[in-house]
Design brief:
- By secondary structure, the protein is of the alpha+beta class.
- The chain folds into 2 domains: 3-224, BirA Bifunctional Protein, domain 2 (2-Layer Sandwich); 231-296, CO dehydrogenase flavoprotein, C-terminal domain (Enolase-like, domain 1).
- 31% of the residues lie in helices and 29% in strands.
- The chain has helices spanning 12-25, 47-50, 53-59, 91-103, 148-154, 186-200, 213-220, 222-225, 269-277, 285-296; strands spanning 3-6, 29-33, 38-41, 62-65, 73-75, 79-86, 110-112, 116-119, 122-132, 135-143, 205-206, 231-239, 242-251, 254-262.
- The longest helix has 15 residues, at 186-200.
- It starts with a strand and ends with a helix.
Length: 297
């Protein structure tokens, strides 16, 4: 027998912890969920290379690291997430359910590459999967009415990803499903996916499940979110009236080395910033800069 689970929360940490709980049950299932604005990283990505934490904090966007691999994606209330669970990796079967649901709106989608779903050449969905003890979870995004300008502003996409592909920017590569049908919404697509799933699994029933608390605690921990290998990045900020360029060297959310360059007339500013930022958590460096600004005013 199969089950259908619908998220009651928009908290990405809770929703991923519920996904983990369903995964542990080892049953055929469909899970549909919507997150509040958040950046969802692949399991093995470097946080400091995927987004700027000060931008996320200013925009009230949550940083999240999922259990599956793949690239970094932006979620908001215009994005519908799906998860399929089964004892085999039935990607074609599961994606056909999504395609059948989209067909009800007159949208014809096709698969491309290793994990994309395209409509008229534009990416509308990305997918990833996880295997554990011969059981699979296969999940993905469906861009129904995502704020693409916000998506572009918060993701730091490597130019290497587009090299040789004739793609000028991420904006030119993605499109919302609502651009192809004025009838589609997150809610209507959710219903269409459920209907398509029930055609494949006629005995499917709605279920309720609590989040995996242990997994939830892992997902919200900074050690998990910012876990990474050594990385470096350059951030330019205005501190007071001075332009400051920060060369940060980060390991596991800790700034272990920093070089500071500035046009400030205060010759001690660089040393002050270096002393205050070294050994600081990378996720808190903006707070430290604000304290420096208050100090030099």
């Amino acid at each position: 027998m199969a089950s259908i689970f619908l998220a009651k929360s928009n908290n990405p940490y809770e929703n991923l912890a519920i996904e983990a709980a369903i995964f542990k049950q080892k049953e055929e299932a469909l899970y549909l969920w919507v997150n509040q604005p958040s950046i969802i990283m692949g399991r093995n990505q470097d946080a400091c290379k995927e987004y700027n934490p000060e931008v996320l904090k200013r925009k009230n966007i949550l940083p999240v690291r999922r259990l599956t691999g793949g690239g970094c994606v932006y979620h908001d209330f215009g994005n519908l997430n799906f998860s399929f669970f089964g004892k085999e990796l039935n990607k074609d079967k599961w994606l056909q359910i999504i395609k059948d649901a989209l067909e009800t709106f007159g949208i014809h989608a096709n698969t491309s590459g290793r994990n994309d779903l395209l409509v008229d050449g534009y990416k509308v969905s990305g997918t990833a999967y996880l295997q554990e003890d011969d059981w699979y979870v296969f999940h993905g995004t469906l861009m129904v009415d995502v704020n693409i300008e916000e998506l572009v502003s918060v993701l730091q996409v490597s130019h290497l990803k587009y090299e040789g592909k004739g793609i000028d920017s991420i904006r030119s590569r993605v499109k919302n499903l609502c651009d192809f049908s004025n009838e589609i919404t997150v809610s209507s697509l959710q219903c269409a996916i459920i209907d398509a799933y029930k055609k494949k699994f006629p005995d499917a029933e709605y279920g309720n499940i609590s989040k995996d608390e242990r997994q939830y605690q892992i997902l919200i921990s900074k050690d998990w979110i910012y876990s990474s290998n050594d990385c470096s990045l350059v951030i330019e900020k205005k501190v007071g009236k001075a332009i400051v360029q920060l060369h940060l060297f980060v390991e596991n959310n800790k700034i272990n080395h920093i070089k500071v360059y500035t046009d400030s007339l205060d010759i001690n500013l660089c040393e002050m910033i270096q002393n205050k930022l070294v050994n600081t958590e990378y996720s808190k460096f903006e707070n430290v800069l604000h304290s420096i600004e208050e100090e030099i005013r």
